[in-house]
Write a structure and sequence with these properties.
This protein has helices at residues 35-52, 138-151, 196-202, 229-233, 237-244, 281-285, 330-336, and strands spanning 21-29, 84-90, 129-135, 156-164, 166-167, 218-227, 296-297, 300-307, 312-323, 346-348, 352-356. Helices cover 17% and strands 20% of the residues. Bound molecules: protoporphyrin IX containing FE (HEM). Residues 177-359 form the Dyp-type peroxidase C-terminal domain.
Length: 372
């Protein structure tokens, strides 16, 4: 069965070729938990994640009568399906509760309210800790989060949880570009695993960090972006393509070529206007319009069923981006996207930033060992 490496310089689940399903959970540490209890739990998470990612249960499924099984069992016969478990720390973890105030990286300062942020729900944003579990099998990802939450019981409580049913990006040149729920190819111009120099430049924290323990880590932005699906579905195809600046069918730039042809922002149509419009999504998100900055996108399509007040689909993109510094990368692009024509059809409803520490070195290492 296919496995992804668990130990290494970086946590898996970032440049790992993006799996098809995700369960993302955020946790808060319970009141009156002391530092040693939190550390023990993080060590137990590391041990459990090392087993889960090779397809093993976190403990016996059949235990002594009188106690519940150590592993909940629903992934018992499934195999790992390239499961990755990626753990992050939220800004709120670095208050006086655990003596971490002087360990807080400057880059973990809250993102604040951005221009498009009029509908952010704090109850599905933030948290002291997060787990991103990705797998080709949705039940394997769910099982991982469920069992880690169970191991954490008494120390942490789930704050919010999001399931993603289909990948909406590509993080490897070996992958076909998937489609988001607007029907467009998503992940064409993304940072890909095959280009480690680009990842070193834009994804992995390096010597510029004020916190030694974050070197080799990354900053994770997660934003649930609801789509106004019914309005989008009634927009005509020419307008849909103009909004993105790419063809819906092939993903090719409207300036010509095929999917991976570079965008040309100066090429004009017969009406004298640029073929890729100035306020199109790809123009405003492109490095050329953002001082060169790039991010690694790793989002998922989600649905939470329907909005019962209106009978409309409750669905969209659970946007995830990894980068060296979210304030200099994600925020810069997002500020430019304040003018995006796509904004008519989307609304961010959650916003979170987590510091993802580097990979675990070997058995015995645990999340945050060099941070405390
Ligand atoms: C490109 C969709 C939100 C950053 C694209 C593309 C699509 C797309 C279809 C073109 C294909 C590709 O190169 O991947 C969406 C949808 C969104 C969304 C449906 C919301 C529901 C965002 C956000 C950001 C972002 C919030 C960052 C703040 C980018 C970047 C590119 C891109 C950097 C590549 C631009 C380039 O270099 O050509 N997006 N996107 N997107 N998007 Fe988004």
């Amino acid at each position: 069965a296919a496995t992804e490496p668990f130990y290494g310089d970086h946590q898996s689940g970032i440049v790992t070729p993006q799996q098809n399903s995700m369960v993302f959970a955020a946790f808060d540490v319970n009141d009156s938990v002391i530092t040693s209890q939190l550390q023990t739990m993080l060590a137990r998470w590391a041990a459990a994640a090392s087993l889960l990612t090779v397809g093993k249960p976190v403990g016996p499924v059949e235990t002594q009568p009188g106690s519940p099984p150590a592993d909940t069992g629903e992934a018992f016969d499934l195999g790992p399906h390239r499961l990755t478990v990626t753990v992050g720390f939220g800004e709120s973890l670095f208050d006086d509760r655990f003596g971490l105030a002087d360990k807080k990286p400057a880059a973990l300062a809250p993102l604040g309210q951005l221009a498009v942020d009029s509908s952010i729900d704090p109850t599905i944003s933030g948290g002291d800790l997060c787990i991103q579990a990705c797998s080709e099998d949705p039940q394997v990802a769910f099982h991982a989060v469920r069992n880690l939450a169970r191991i954490g019981r008494g120390v942490v409580t789930l704050r919010w949880l999001q399931e993603g049913f289909g990948r909406a990006s590509a993080t490897s040149t070996s992958q076909v570009t998937p489609r988001n729920l607007m029907g467009f190819k998503d992940g064409t111009a993304n940072i890909k695993a095959e280009d480690p120099d680009i990842a070193d430049k834009w994804v992995w924290v390096g010597d510029e960090s004020d916190q030694e323990w974050m070197k080799g880590g990354s900053y994770l932005v997660a934003r649930k972006i609801r789509m106004h699906i019914e309005a989008w579905d009634s927009d005509d195809i020419v307008d849909q393509e103009a909004i993105f600046g790419r063809s819906k069918d092939s993903g090719a730039p409207l300036s010509g070529g095929s999917e991976f042809t570079a965008l040309n922002f100066t090429k004009k149509g017969p009406d004298g206007k640029p073929l890729v419009e100035r306020f199109s999504h790809v123009h405003l998100a492109h490095p050329d319009t953002n001082g060169g900055v790039q991010i690694l996108r790793r989002g998922y399509n989600y649905t939470d069923g329907i909005d019962t007040r209106t009978g409309t689909l409750d669905a969209g993109l659970f946007f995830i981006a990894y980068q060296k510094n979210a304030h200099e990368q994600f925020v810069r692009i997002q500020n430019n996207l304040a003018q995006d024509r796509l904004n008519e059809y989307i609304a961010p409803i959650s916003s979170s930033l987590f510091a993802v520490p580097p990979g675990l070195t070997a058995v015995g290492d645990w999340y945050g060992k060099t941070m405390f």
